[in-house]
Design goal:
The structure holds two protein chains of two kinds.
Chain A (H helix, E strand, L loop, with lengths): L1 H5 L3 E12 L2 E12 L3 E5 L6 H8 L7 E6 L2 E2 L5 H7 L1 E3 L12 H7 L9 H6 L2 H20 L15 H13 L5 E5 L7 H18 L2 E5 L3 H7 L2 E6 L2 E6 L1 H5 L2 H8 L3
Parallel strand pairs in A: 3-8, 3-9, 6-7, 7-8
Antiparallel strand pairs in A: 1-2, 1-4, 4-5, 9-10
Chain B lengths: L1 H30 L6 H18 L4 H29 L4 H23 L4 E2 L8 E4 L2 E4 H23 L1 H11 L1 H5 L5 H26 L2 E2 L3 H16 L4 H20 L6 H15 L14
Antiparallel strand pairs in B: 1-4, 2-3
Helix pairs in contact in B: 1-5, 1-8, 1-9, 1-10, 2-3, 2-4, 2-8, 2-9, 3-4, 3-8, 5-6, 5-8, 6-8, 9-10, 9-11, 10-11
The chains are: A alpha/beta, B mainly alpha.
């Protein structure tokens, strides 16, 4: 706790967050605070409600009760695309790129929100169109360079190898200049070398884009190696929260993962 | 020579189908909705042209502009009033389909109420004179139809490929959920798609009236269905597919007439639909959507 108080500026706050599907409390009274420049991990067994928390944070679901604040302002009741514009970006557990669009266009779509020219200006090729599209293309290429994807800019997203598709998803999420980046199992399906590389990439993203990161991951060495704070969910409830060291030795966590009487 | 003339006539007729098929395909691509009221938008466009050109006596350009704007507005209003809630609530496709048929009936009956069911004549919309091309003599209306459609389809390609709303449309059609999470408003994108689709149908209407100057409240049904066949033939959801499908259906119709089988042209068109569904249900350029297992 003392550690998170040092990084005093909260970016994303969840308070008493709950959602009920039918009779099931998929997420029950979850609360946490993500601070500026922090990397926080959300872990727990399968079906614990981790992705549901992401869906609540991005407005895909509306919580039954509770509050979500971004920079101190409530984002409750806002539409998904509005929340994205306010600065919450995410990736998906199962990669959801726009497969038939080029790598470059995948990133550019996420920059749409920053552009202002009209559809007519686009068809007629007015100066506002060229100016804005050129600026966006340059920025998108810069972003691709960070992930070493610049050589594939014109390839269709579906033709990239798996590891690069994951990277492209992160690049696309960063394209809208988010304050908070939510990564849903970024290391899923990666081999140890790729995972190690991904850890470096995430560190790089934090320092370069000044973004707070909340990630879901099952790979424990990855989570322990990169996260400063962990929140552990089981059956929708928080069973532990603290530094990786505190969480690792918590008996409740061990029971949740390994089973117990 | 006769054969070539028939091909050109077919391309002209086909480009009208293509303009209408684009509306079906774009809307389907983004919402998975088969908007059976889309055919009736042609009828709305034809009446808008009639009102402006014949009743109000405006020049042609003003009539076209008015028809396009009016249809775009009607398209968006239909989307907002009839479909939006169903789409938001992820209603089953059958509910959407039935709603679309309802909207189609509403439009037909509404226009019958306003304009009566007898055919109205809208003659000489487009300048008509024979144009000699080499040994052929082609009607100016045919050439104008083909040229207009080509220009419009190029503009549409630019819109979809090069602009941000086009990128939003492609992204929404690939994965609406992910697009929202990238800051794309699916609501605005869907409304825009309906506006563009309906505007294209209005252009189709003006060109159609140029070739067949008699309009009724029911004219959109058969024309709409044939355009739908064109969209399926090309691969519904695919923009180039709709263009190719439209042209192929037009040529097929024209050639059927040319060999003296005018009375079975409709049967040929719908025969093509059956054949496509049997042999290649995804159409010529359609994507093979694999269900996740």
């Amino acid at each position: 706790m003392a550690e998170s108080e040092k990084k005093s500026v909260p970016v994303l706050e969840a308070e008493n967050l709950s959602i009920v599907f039918g009779g099931l409390h998929a997420v029950d009274d979850v609360h946490f605070t993500l601070h500026e420049n922090q990397i926080m991990g959300l872990i727990g067994p399968n079906g614990a409600g981790k992705t549901t928390v992401f869906n609540l944070l991005t407005g895909v679901y509306t919580p039954t009760t509770g509050q979500i604040k971004l920079d101190g302002k409530s984002i409750l009741g806002k539409k998904t695309y509005q929340i994205t514009k306010m600065g919450v970006a995410r990736t998906f557990q199962n990669i959801r790129l726009f497969k038939d669009m080029s790598v470059l266009d995948n990133v550019r779509v996420a920059m749409n929100q920053k552009m202002n020219y009209s559809a007519l200006a686009g068809i007629l090729g007015l100066p506002s169109y060229w100016r804005e599209e050129a600026a966006v293309e340059e920025k998108a290429m810069d972003l691709l360079r960070v992930f070493h994807l610049e050589g594939h800019a014109q390839d269709r997203a579906k033709n990239l190898p798996y590891g690069q598709q994951r990277k492209l998803e992160i690049a696309r999420a960063l394209a809208g200049d988010p304050k908070v980046l939510l990564l849903d199992e970024p290391a899923a399906g990666m081999n140890p070398t790729e995972t190690a590389e991904l850890m470096e990439t995430i560190e790089l993203i934090r320092s370069r884009f000044h973004v707070a990161i909340l990630l879901i991951e099952h790979d424990m060495s990855f989570v322990m190696g990169i996260c400063e704070h962990l929140v552990v969910l089981d059956y929708g409830r928080i069973i532990a929260s603290g530094t990786p060291e505190e969480v690792r030795t918590n008996p409740k966590v061990i029971t949740a993962y390994l089973g117990g009487e | 020579m006769e054969f070539l003339t028939q091909i050109i006539n077919g391309l002209s007729q086909g480009s009208i189908f293509a303009l209408v098929a684009l509306g079906y395909s774009m809307v389907y691509g983004i919402t998975q909705l088969i908007n059976f009221a889309h055919g009736d938008i042609i009828m709305v466009g034809a009446y808008a042209t009639y009102v402006m050109l014949i009743l109000a006596g405006t020049p042609l350009w003003a009539a076209i502009l008015a028809a396009v704007l009016f249809c775009a507005i009607v398209g968006v209003v239909i989307e907002q009033v009839a479909y939006q809630r169903l789409l938001n609530k992820n209603a089953p496709h059958i509910s959407l389909l039935i709603t679309a048929i309802g909207v189609s009936m509403l439009l037909q009956n509404l226009f019958q109420l306003i304009f009566k069911s007898d055919a109205k004549s809208v003659s000489n919309v487009l300048p008509s004179f024979p144009v000699p091309i080499g040994p052929l003599e082609i009607s100016s209306v045919t050439l104008i139809t083909i040229a207009t459609s080509v220009v419009i389809m190029i503009l549409l390609q630019l819109l979809v490929k090069k602009t941000r709303i086009g990128k939003a449309m492609r992204a929404t059609s690939e994965d609406a959920g992910a697009a929202k999470l990238m800051g794309v408003s699916s609501r605005n994108t869907i409304a825009f798609t309906f506006a563009v689709g309906s505007g294209l149908a209005a252009v189709g209407a003006v060109l159609y009236v140029g070739a067949y100057p008699s309009i009724t409240p029911y004219m959109g049904s058969l024309l709409g269905l044939k355009a739908f066949v064109a969209a399926v033939l090309g691969g519904i959801g695919s923009i180039p597919g709709a263009m190719i499908g439209g042209l192929l259906i037009g040529v097929a119709e024209s050639l059927t007439k040319a060999v003296g089988l005018s009375q079975i042209t409709d049967a040929v068109v719908f025969g093509i639909l059956i054949l496509v569904l049997l042999v290649k249900p995804t159409g010529l350029l359609g994507k093979n959507i694999k269900e996740k297992v």
